[in-house]
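hiii so my PI (J.) wants the whole complex modelled not just the main chain, which honestly fair. so below is everything: two entries, each one labled with what it is. i double checked the lines twice but i was tired so who knows lol
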Amino acid sequence: MNFRRFTALLASVVAIVLVVIVVFLAAYAWPAVRLNGFHFLIDNSWNLGRQYGTPITVHGQEILPGAHYGILFLIAGTLLSTAIALAIAVPVGVGAALFLAEGVPPIMRSWLSFFVELLAAIPSVVFGLWGYVVVIPFLGHHLFPFMIKWLGFIPFFGGTPGSGYGLLTSGLVLTLMIVPLITATLRDALVSQPASLREAAVALGASRFETMWTVLMPAVRRVLIGSSILATGRALGETMAVLMVSGNALNILPNNIYQPISTMASFIVSQLDSAMQDPTGMAVRSLAEVALVLCLISIMVNGLARVLLYYEGRQAARIA
Amino acid sequence: MGNLTESEVIIGVPGPDRTIQDSVNEASKSALKIAVGHLNFHYGPRQVLFDISLEIPDRKITALIGPSGCGKSTFLRTLNRMHETVNGTRAEGEVLLDGQDIFAIDVVRLRRRVGMVFQKSNPFPKSIFENVAYGLKINRMANRSAIAEIVEKSLRRAALWDEVKDHLHKSAYSLSGGQQQRLCIARALAVDPEVLLLDEPCSALDPVATAKIEDLLLDLVSSCTIVIVTHNMQQAARVADYTGFFLLGKLIEFNKTDVIFKNPAQKETEDYITGRFG
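here's the output for the full assembly
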């Protein structure tokens, strides 16, 4: 086998594995998809049924009596926590990347950059544990009451602080996990911009900030979009850290940013054990359907990224 | 000295029989744009310019020649304080622009008055229009309609308008190398600088593109003082009114271009221009 064929094989293995996983997931979840129908996406009603009841047949599927599966609260929890994380992480990441690329002396730069990359290398369960032990008590006892007092007039910022587990906490922990991704990628892109661009701006009387904002940032816009999308993927799929700080809400939608939530990824982990007790197997199949929905959302986010980058690329070719 | 014709006025380095005061006196008679007095320049511990004094006349083209590493680019970059963007540099001495100390002027204002074009064309990854408008926008020098007018005027001055007028909103990178360099000149001209510094602007260009830029400089000099660093002695001979010869961080000779090329006073200058080294 020559080298070209070998690499072609390796490349196709990746694609095949992806397709096989999605097909398997869809096939396995199919009975649940038929049972749950569209209500799966719009109901807040995850209920495994009476475990020792006699299985009944609904729509041709055998399930436990009282079993019902609706995951709107999971979709909401996943999307909201990711949105909060992005809303904080993008500006922070951009600021940090600009600072690392332009603001610090070269010797400090390599050290600080090293730490940023180290942050990205920390296993998520460590973030989770740290969130559980350190962040949650602080947020629940100090920051959240403070925010409610001063920012409570803003919709979703008021209410009761709860214990510190919840939507905002999940968003903050996710932020910590994705900021290094955005920062490291963007910093590399900024550093690799030719010095001549900076000189051109400076020679026209641009300040350091103007040079960054009007020349360097537009030049790396595509990288920013790309790294934000990667970060979104990571945040959507993050499991352990969120599981440990989200409060694991069941069947409720948060009505302010302090309330407990669950996300799809962490819910699969936390429910798998109970679901396995279901003799009809429908609970596990419904969890597979959750996984399928999560997969589809991630694929849609990536697709959206392609469209954005394509549009941005066309615009870049036309204007920039 | 009033009885001397212009060609007999020697502007430049104080010689053994002339003092700096003489030079200043002369300068006040001929129109003087930039006066440099005893400029020393250090990169960290290394000194790269030694006691440079010269006077750059207004609305003339002054060429700086010399072998690589002689300090001519460093000297040029000092004139609009571009050297300050590099850590560890230090310039000592006096540089006066219209009699004002450039180190006392706000650096943004200085760079607006003293524009710069670089060795490698460096347009922004923006449209042709946006490139030329950049300096106006960041310096908030004009409103929207005035910007369009100034962009056109600058592109005309840079002899690029006819080639780009139908696709002003295309990427600057779609232009050829020579066009990109003229775009950079237009961009520098848009803020209407009094002095234009050019650092080997043609070194990456073919002879046709080079000729266009040289013609352009000869047109521009009626409205703007030009200082050009060049490796190409023929280029200095073709465009410059005055020429300075740098060697190892020292200004060896500065005089009218004719004199430098036909009758240099210093042995080193003669050796360089006759191609014995460099």
